[in-house]
Protein backbone atom coordinates (compact mmCIF):
# COMPACT_ATOMS: atom_id res chain seq x y z
CA UNK A 1 0.00 0.00 0.00
CA UNK A 2 1.32 3.41 -1.01
CA UNK A 3 0.82 6.31 1.41
CA UNK A 4 1.53 8.92 -1.29
CA UNK A 5 -2.04 9.11 -2.54
CA UNK A 6 -2.82 12.06 -4.80
CA UNK A 7 -5.94 10.86 -6.66
CA UNK A 8 -9.15 9.50 -5.18
CA UNK A 9 -11.64 7.83 -7.49
CA UNK A 10 -15.18 7.06 -6.32
CA UNK A 11 -17.84 4.55 -7.22
CA UNK A 12 -21.34 6.06 -7.33
CA UNK A 13 -24.14 3.61 -6.47
CA UNK A 14 -23.92 2.44 -2.87
CA UNK A 15 -20.78 4.54 -2.29
CA UNK A 16 -21.29 8.23 -3.09
CA UNK A 17 -25.02 8.00 -3.77
CA UNK A 18 -27.79 6.02 -2.12
CA UNK A 19 -31.33 5.22 -3.26
CA UNK A 20 -34.67 6.29 -1.84
CA UNK A 21 -37.15 3.66 -3.04
CA UNK A 22 -40.26 5.87 -3.09
CA UNK A 23 -43.05 3.58 -4.44
CA UNK A 24 -44.84 6.42 -6.25
CA UNK A 25 -41.59 7.53 -7.88
CA UNK A 26 -40.84 3.99 -9.07
CA UNK A 27 -44.38 3.43 -10.38
CA UNK A 28 -44.35 6.66 -12.38
CA UNK A 29 -41.14 5.61 -14.15
CA UNK A 30 -42.52 2.15 -14.93
CA UNK A 31 -45.69 3.64 -16.38
CA UNK A 32 -43.58 5.99 -18.51
CA UNK A 33 -41.57 3.07 -19.89
CA UNK A 34 -44.77 1.26 -20.90
CA UNK A 35 -45.96 4.43 -22.63
CA UNK A 36 -42.67 4.94 -24.47
CA UNK A 37 -42.76 1.31 -25.62
CA UNK A 38 -46.35 1.67 -26.87
CA UNK A 39 -47.62 -0.93 -24.44
CA UNK A 40 -51.15 -0.62 -23.13
CA UNK A 41 -51.50 -2.19 -19.70
CA UNK A 42 -53.66 -1.61 -16.69
CA UNK A 43 -50.82 -2.61 -14.39
CA UNK A 44 -47.49 -1.08 -15.50
CA UNK A 45 -45.76 -2.32 -12.33
CA UNK A 46 -46.62 -5.94 -13.05
CA UNK A 47 -45.78 -5.61 -16.75
CA UNK A 48 -42.43 -4.07 -15.89
CA UNK A 49 -41.66 -6.86 -13.44
CA UNK A 50 -42.76 -9.66 -15.79
CA UNK A 51 -41.17 -8.33 -18.97
CA UNK A 52 -38.51 -5.65 -18.58
CA UNK A 53 -36.93 -6.80 -15.32
CA UNK A 54 -36.67 -10.42 -16.41
CA UNK A 55 -35.06 -9.38 -19.66
CA UNK A 56 -32.73 -7.00 -17.85
CA UNK A 57 -31.54 -9.89 -15.66
CA UNK A 58 -30.39 -11.69 -18.82
CA UNK A 59 -28.74 -8.53 -20.11
CA UNK A 60 -26.94 -8.05 -16.81
CA UNK A 61 -25.59 -11.61 -16.94
CA UNK A 62 -24.16 -10.82 -20.38
CA UNK A 63 -22.77 -7.45 -19.25
CA UNK A 64 -21.02 -8.96 -16.24
CA UNK A 65 -19.65 -11.89 -18.23
CA UNK A 66 -18.05 -9.68 -20.87
CA UNK A 67 -17.43 -6.64 -18.61
CA UNK A 68 -19.28 -4.57 -21.20
CA UNK A 69 -22.12 -2.04 -21.22
CA UNK A 70 -24.31 -1.91 -24.31
CA UNK A 71 -25.21 1.37 -26.02
CA UNK A 72 -28.71 2.54 -25.13
CA UNK A 73 -30.22 1.65 -28.50
CA UNK A 74 -28.71 -1.84 -28.37
CA UNK A 75 -29.89 -2.32 -24.79
CA UNK A 76 -33.50 -1.84 -25.84
CA UNK A 77 -33.57 -3.27 -29.37
CA UNK A 78 -31.60 -6.40 -28.53
CA UNK A 79 -32.37 -7.06 -24.90
CA UNK A 80 -35.34 -5.26 -23.36
CA UNK A 81 -37.85 -4.47 -26.12
CA UNK A 82 -36.81 -6.63 -29.05
CA UNK A 83 -40.41 -7.68 -29.81
CA UNK A 84 -41.84 -4.15 -29.92
CA UNK A 85 -41.97 -1.46 -32.62
CA UNK A 86 -38.26 -1.09 -33.38
CA UNK A 87 -38.49 2.35 -34.94
CA UNK A 88 -40.30 3.59 -31.85
CA UNK A 89 -37.81 1.91 -29.53
CA UNK A 90 -34.80 3.38 -31.31
CA UNK A 91 -36.34 6.83 -31.19
CA UNK A 92 -37.05 6.53 -27.46
CA UNK A 93 -33.97 4.52 -26.38
CA UNK A 94 -32.28 7.36 -24.48
CA UNK A 95 -35.44 8.32 -22.61
CA UNK A 96 -36.26 4.68 -21.92
CA UNK A 97 -32.85 4.20 -20.33
CA UNK A 98 -33.26 7.37 -18.29
CA UNK A 99 -36.63 6.16 -17.01
CA UNK A 100 -35.21 2.71 -16.29
CA UNK A 101 -32.71 4.36 -13.95
CA UNK A 102 -35.63 6.02 -12.17
CA UNK A 103 -37.37 2.67 -11.64
CA UNK A 104 -34.66 1.86 -9.11
CA UNK A 105 -35.42 4.90 -6.97
CA UNK A 106 -34.44 8.50 -6.37
CA UNK A 107 -30.66 8.84 -6.03
CA UNK A 108 -29.19 11.27 -3.52
CA UNK A 109 -25.66 11.95 -2.35
CA UNK A 110 -24.82 10.05 0.82
CA UNK A 111 -24.91 12.02 4.06
CA UNK A 112 -21.84 14.23 4.28
CA UNK A 113 -20.75 13.20 0.80
CA UNK A 114 -20.67 16.56 -0.95
CA UNK A 115 -18.91 18.35 1.90
CA UNK A 116 -16.35 15.54 2.14
CA UNK A 117 -15.50 15.72 -1.56
CA UNK A 118 -15.14 19.50 -1.40
CA UNK A 119 -12.87 19.21 1.62
CA UNK A 120 -10.72 16.53 -0.02
CA UNK A 121 -10.28 18.82 -3.02
CA UNK A 122 -9.32 21.65 -0.66
CA UNK A 123 -6.73 19.36 0.91
CA UNK A 124 -5.08 18.89 -2.47
CA UNK A 125 -6.52 15.62 -3.78
CA UNK A 126 -7.72 15.20 -7.35
CA UNK A 127 -11.14 13.55 -7.35
CA UNK A 128 -12.74 11.39 -10.02
CA UNK A 129 -15.65 9.04 -10.62
CA UNK A 130 -15.49 5.53 -12.09
CA UNK A 131 -18.95 4.00 -12.18
CA UNK A 132 -20.96 1.22 -13.84
CA UNK A 133 -24.42 2.30 -14.99
CA UNK A 134 -26.74 2.44 -17.98
CA UNK A 135 -27.63 5.70 -19.69
CA UNK A 136 -25.64 8.82 -20.57
CA UNK A 137 -27.99 11.53 -19.31
CA UNK A 138 -28.70 11.05 -15.63
CA UNK A 139 -25.22 11.50 -14.14
CA UNK A 140 -24.53 14.69 -16.10
CA UNK A 141 -27.85 16.16 -14.97
CA UNK A 142 -27.13 15.30 -11.35
CA UNK A 143 -23.60 16.73 -11.37
CA UNK A 144 -24.88 20.03 -12.76
CA UNK A 145 -27.97 20.17 -10.52
CA UNK A 146 -25.94 19.56 -7.35
CA UNK A 147 -23.09 21.83 -8.44
CA UNK A 148 -20.54 19.02 -8.08
CA UNK A 149 -19.04 18.90 -11.57
CA UNK A 150 -16.12 21.24 -10.74
CA UNK A 151 -14.91 18.85 -8.04
CA UNK A 152 -14.40 15.84 -10.34
CA UNK A 153 -11.60 16.00 -12.90
CA UNK A 154 -12.80 12.83 -14.61
CA UNK A 155 -16.15 11.05 -14.78
CA UNK A 156 -15.83 7.59 -16.30
CA UNK A 157 -19.13 5.81 -16.91
CA UNK A 158 -19.53 2.34 -18.36
CA UNK A 159 -22.47 3.76 -20.35
CA UNK A 160 -19.98 5.98 -22.19
CA UNK A 161 -16.88 3.79 -22.34
CA UNK A 162 -18.92 0.55 -22.81
CA UNK A 163 -16.46 -1.06 -20.36
CA UNK A 164 -17.50 -2.26 -16.93
CA UNK A 165 -15.56 -2.87 -13.75
CA UNK A 166 -13.58 -4.90 -12.88
CA UNK A 167 -12.27 -4.51 -16.43
CA UNK A 168 -8.98 -2.60 -16.08
CA UNK A 169 -9.55 -0.32 -19.08
CA UNK A 170 -12.09 1.98 -17.38
CA UNK A 171 -9.58 2.65 -14.58
CA UNK A 172 -6.90 3.40 -17.16
CA UNK A 173 -9.19 5.92 -18.85
CA UNK A 174 -9.57 7.74 -15.52
CA UNK A 175 -5.82 7.75 -14.93
CA UNK A 176 -5.11 8.92 -18.48
CA UNK A 177 -7.52 11.86 -18.19
CA UNK A 178 -6.14 12.97 -14.82
CA UNK A 179 -2.47 12.26 -15.56
CA UNK A 180 -2.30 9.87 -12.61
CA UNK A 181 0.06 7.00 -11.92
CA UNK A 182 -1.61 3.93 -10.38
CA UNK A 183 0.58 3.89 -7.27
CA UNK A 184 -0.73 7.37 -6.38
CA UNK A 185 -4.41 6.41 -6.73
CA UNK A 186 -7.05 5.24 -4.26
CA UNK A 187 -10.37 3.70 -5.21
CA UNK A 188 -13.39 3.87 -2.90
CA UNK A 189 -16.26 1.49 -3.59
CA UNK A 190 -18.84 -0.77 -2.03
CA UNK A 191 -18.59 -3.85 -4.26
CA UNK A 192 -15.54 -5.90 -3.40
CA UNK A 193 -15.68 -8.13 -6.46
CA UNK A 194 -15.93 -5.27 -8.94
CA UNK A 195 -14.64 -2.07 -7.37
CA UNK A 196 -11.77 -3.47 -5.33
CA UNK A 197 -10.75 -6.29 -7.69
CA UNK A 198 -10.59 -3.88 -10.62
CA UNK A 199 -8.55 -1.28 -8.73
CA UNK A 200 -6.10 -3.91 -7.53
CA UNK A 201 -5.81 -5.31 -11.06
CA UNK A 202 -4.34 -1.98 -12.20
CA UNK A 203 -2.15 -1.74 -9.08
CA UNK A 204 -3.82 1.21 -7.37
CA UNK A 205 -1.82 2.34 -4.36
CA UNK A 206 -4.79 2.01 -2.01
CA UNK A 207 -8.33 0.62 -1.96
CA UNK A 208 -11.07 1.46 0.55
CA UNK A 209 -14.32 -0.47 0.88
CA UNK A 210 -17.56 1.21 1.92
CA UNK A 211 -19.61 -0.78 4.42
CA UNK A 212 -22.59 1.33 5.43
CA UNK A 213 -24.44 -1.77 6.66
CA UNK A 214 -22.32 -2.95 9.57
CA UNK A 215 -24.48 -6.01 10.10
CA UNK A 216 -23.61 -7.45 6.69
CA UNK A 217 -20.18 -9.11 6.89
CA UNK A 218 -17.61 -8.64 4.16
CA UNK A 219 -16.90 -11.80 2.19
CA UNK A 220 -13.19 -11.35 1.76
CA UNK A 221 -10.75 -13.19 -0.47
CA UNK A 222 -7.13 -12.53 -1.30
CA UNK A 223 -8.24 -10.97 -4.59
CA UNK A 224 -10.88 -8.58 -3.22
CA UNK A 225 -9.23 -7.61 0.09
CA UNK A 226 -9.23 -3.79 0.44
CA UNK A 227 -6.65 -1.91 2.45
CA UNK A 228 -9.35 -0.49 4.70
CA UNK A 229 -13.03 0.20 5.07
CA UNK A 230 -15.29 3.02 6.15
CA UNK A 231 -18.72 3.00 7.77
CA UNK A 232 -19.57 6.60 6.86
CA UNK A 233 -18.39 8.59 3.88
CA UNK A 234 -16.90 11.44 5.95
CA UNK A 235 -14.47 8.93 7.49
CA UNK A 236 -12.40 9.50 4.35
CA UNK A 237 -11.33 12.75 5.97
CA UNK A 238 -9.70 10.74 8.75
CA UNK A 239 -7.70 8.76 6.19
CA UNK A 240 -6.73 11.67 3.96
CA UNK A 241 -5.54 14.78 5.79
CA UNK A 242 -3.71 17.53 3.91
CA UNK A 243 -2.21 15.89 0.84
CA UNK A 244 1.17 14.33 1.37
CA UNK A 245 0.39 12.98 4.83
CA UNK A 246 -2.05 10.10 4.36
CA UNK A 247 -3.06 8.81 7.77
CA UNK A 248 -2.54 5.11 7.14
CA UNK A 249 -2.94 4.51 10.86
CA UNK A 250 -6.56 5.70 10.56
CA UNK A 251 -7.50 2.91 8.15
CA UNK A 252 -10.01 0.47 9.56
CA UNK A 253 -8.63 -2.92 8.60
CA UNK A 254 -11.17 -5.22 6.91
CA UNK A 255 -11.83 -8.62 8.41
CA UNK A 256 -14.38 -11.39 8.01
CA UNK A 257 -17.42 -11.00 10.18
CA UNK A 258 -17.17 -7.21 10.48
Provide structural commentary.
This protein has 258 residues and is an alpha/beta fold. It is 43% helix and 14% strand. The protein contains ten helices and eight strands. The chain has helices at 23-37, 44-66, 72-80, 86-102, 113-122, 138-145, 158-161, 168-178, 192-201, 236-239, and strands spanning 7-10, 17-20, 106-109, 126-131, 154-157, 185-189, 206-210, 228-230. The strands form two sheets. Strands 5-4-1-6-7-8 form a six-stranded parallel sheet, with helices on both faces. A two-stranded antiparallel sheet has the order 2-3. Helix 1 (23-37) packs across helix 2, helix 1 runs antiparallel to helix 4 and helix 3 (72-80) crosses helix 4. The longest helix has 23 residues, at 44-66. The model has no long low-confidence stretch (mean pLDDT 94).
Amino acid sequence: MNSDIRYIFLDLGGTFRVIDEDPAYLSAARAKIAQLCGVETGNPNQWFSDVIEKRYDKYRDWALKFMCEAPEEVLWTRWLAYDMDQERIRKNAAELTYQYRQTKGRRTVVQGGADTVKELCARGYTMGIISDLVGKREVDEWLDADGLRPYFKTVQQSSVTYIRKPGPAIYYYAMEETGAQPENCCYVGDNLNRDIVGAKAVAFGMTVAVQYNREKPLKLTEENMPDGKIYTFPQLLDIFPQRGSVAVDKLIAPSDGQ
